[in-house]
Every structure is written in C-alpha cells, then in structure tokens.
Amino acid sequence: MQSVRVELGERSYDVVVGSGLLRDIGRQLSELTSFRRCALVVDQAIATTHGEAVRRALAASGFTVCEASFFASEENKNLHALEEICRTLLARDTARNTPLIALGGGITGDTAGFASAVYQRGTPFVQVPTTLLAMVDSSVGGKVAVNLDGSKNMIGAFHQPKRVLIDIDTLATLDSRELRCGLAECLKHGIIGDADLFSWTRERLPRLAALDPGSVQELVARNVAFKAAVVARDETEQGERALLNLGHTFGHAIEGCGGATRYKHGEAVAIGIAAATHFAVSRKLCAPEVLTEIESTFVAAGLPVRLELAATDSELIAEMYKDKKTKQQNLTLIVPRKIGECTMLRGVADAEVVRSWEYVRRADLTSNEG
Ligand SMILES: NC(=O)c1ccc[n+]([C@@H]2O[C@H](COP(=O)([O-])OP(=O)(O)OC[C@H]3O[C@@H](n4cnc5c(N)ncnc54)[C@H](O)[C@@H]3O)[C@@H](O)[C@H]2O)c1
Ligand SMILES: [Zn+2]
Fold this sequence. Notes:
Layout: E1 2-6, E2 13-18, H1 25-32, E3 37-43, H2 50-60, E4 64-70, H3 79-91, E5 100-104, H4 106-118, E6 125-129, H5 132-138, E7 143-148, E8 151-158, E9 163-167, H6 176-193, H7 195-203, H8 205-209, H9 213-233, H10 248-259, H11 265-282, H12 288-300, H13 313-322, E10 331-338, E11 341-348, H14 350-361
Parallel strand pairs: 2-9, 3-4, 3-5, 5-6, 6-9
Antiparallel strand pairs: 1-2, 7-8, 10-11
Helix pairs in contact: 3-4, 5-6, 5-9, 6-7, 6-11, 10-11, 10-13, 11-12, 11-14, 13-14
Bound molecules: nicotinamide-adenine-dinucleotide and zinc ion.
The site of nicotinamide-adenine-dinucleotide has 29 residues, from α4, α5, β8 and α6.
C-alpha cells in the first residue's frame, strides 16, 4: 500500500493505492467520519462485483448505506442523473455531513462528485475509482461535472475529495481497451513533465497489459503523484494545470465530430497528441524524432495515432473552437517541446492546424516530416 498526499492546504487529502483496498473501505471511512452512515453511488456495471465487496466491507464496519446505482455513459452524465442521485439521498434523509462514496470510472466519479458538491451545498466526498483513467486522472484534482446538450463537463464545480481509495485489483474486470485508454493519459503525463515516467511506462507496457500488480501499483502511484503536484500548484486551472489538456483540443474535436462511436476518449487523445506533436514539429519547436518516439510508444501500447473519420478538416476545426478551454476566437494548443516538457501556444492559425489534421489522416505510420 502506498499513499500520495495532495497538498491543498486545508483541503489536502491522501490518495491511497494498493491491492485489496475495497475490503478496507470501512476502516478508511472511519478515519474520516465518526458517523455510521454513508452514501454510495455505484456504477451499475460493477454493482454486483466490486459493489458487493464495498457493501460487505461497509456493513462489517457498522455503516448504514444509502445506495444509488448509476448507468455510466456520456449520455447519462447529465443533470437528470444528478437530480436522481440527489433525490435518492433526500428520500433517505441523508444529512449534509454524510460522506458520499463514488465507486466506478470517471463518469461515475464526475457525476457523483458533482452531486456531492451540490447536495445541501456540499457533502464529504470519497472517490473509489475502478478504471485506470479514473485512478490516474479524474479521481484526483477535484473537478466534478456533468454534460449539457452534448457539451462535455459544461456544468460543474471544484469539489476536492476527502480521500481517494484506489484498489488496483478492480482493474482485473476492466476491458483491456479501457485499460489502454488509461495508459494514454499516463503517457500524456510523461510527455507533459516526466521523461523518466514516459520511458519507464514504455518499458513496462507488456507487464502493465498483463496487470502485473507491482508494475500497476507503481504506475498508478507515479501518475497520481504527477497529477497531484500539478493540481497542488494550480488547483483551479489558472495556468499550469491547463497543460494536462495536451492532445485534448484535437481529441475532443474528434469525439465531437462523430468520432466518439469509433474512438474511446483515450484513443482520441492519443491521436490528438500525435497531431499536437506534429504541430510542434512543423513550428520547429520540437525535433521530428520526438514525434516518432511518441507515435511508436502509443502504437506499442495498442493505441491509435492515425485518424479515420468522415468529418472534414473545417468541421474538426469548428469543433475545436467549441472546446470550452478556447477563449473566444483564439485557438490555444498545448504542444510538446520534448518528452517531459510542453508549452502553451495561443492564437494559432486555422491553416496551420489543418496541416496537423491532414498529417494524422495519412495512412503511413512512419512519416514524421513537418
Ligand atoms: N474530473 C476530471 O478531472 C476528469 C479527468 C479526465 C476524465 N474525466 C471524465 O472521465 C470520464 C471517463 O472516465 P472513464 O474512462 O473511467 O469512463 P467510464 O466511467 O465510462 O468507465 C468506462 C467503462 O468501464 C466500466 N467500468 C468501470 N470500472 C470497471 C471495472 N473495474 N470493471 C469493469 N468495468 C468497469 C464502466 O461501466 C464503463 O462502461 C469522462 O466523462 C471524462 O470527462 C474527468
Ligand atoms: Zn483525458
């Protein structure tokens, strides 16, 4: 078991990473509250497996549980689901000081976390992420949100959890494609600011794919520490935290232009990072070898770096402007300078961005000229 502290003054909390931790949840929760009641929002897909383990552990520690189950999909990550969770809490007379546990992937964590942020103006929140993406990314940092009319995360808040409990054993039931999507975000962290993490991950890809416990625990702990450090320096994304969006302006455009049926989020981000790196190479901010290394690593991780999508370049660019991180009529891109260092470019021209879209549409995998 390892613990990573997220340093945010009075909102600081521990992210605990290990094997078999679901069984420890009653004890962990007892450290946070003297009450013997809690709320549990559980992803339906794991309600009878990991959900049952959590229920048993909570009951063994004497907790009475108010449970709401949630069908995790982007369509269902909405205000209606938020209302349903709050209704369930109210129907069971859930008081404001009752901790709310989110058990599931990022969709469950974001939706339940937002419910925890707004129910009676805020309840203590505990994240128990069960996808690799949620473990290394969405469960740390306090961003909670739901979608509105197809726009991602439009309604939300910053609501830091009191604790994040990561049981790496839960990954055993996760689809391997979902695991690879989490790896995309881990590799993203390496490219943004930790070259050693990038090469370490690359070397261990086979062991990580086989869910070797030591490798997975180290991967999760290192990525949580990376994200925690960024969040500690810039909790509300006034500056550095925006670097975590590497590949996401391109990636969200892919998802928004009909690519969400073909590509999962981490896959769209992998293609987006290839496009952003191509952009940096064409501006001579980054050596062509970096693009080759990033692409070959993503390919080795089973992630795509080429786009197959019917959408036109102008549709993709229009979608990039919709990204809420784009301030008015100015496209902002995060691009690598090398592995372990990224920079933000403001006011980039559409014509330049088109060249990077064209690049990721090329069929060949080895070409890397600007
Ligand atoms: N808050 C943040 O800072 C932040 C950061 C990154 C992403 N996100 C959000 O996270 C969401 C994506 O998260 P995700 O990729 O975890 O998606 P998800 O929650 O949909 O989980 C992916 C799939 O895996 C299933 N699942 C979850 N855990 C499982 C397990 N242990 N075994 C078997 N199946 C399991 C789910 O039911 C779902 O079908 C997006 O909505 C995104 O906006 C938020
Ligand atoms: Zn992402």
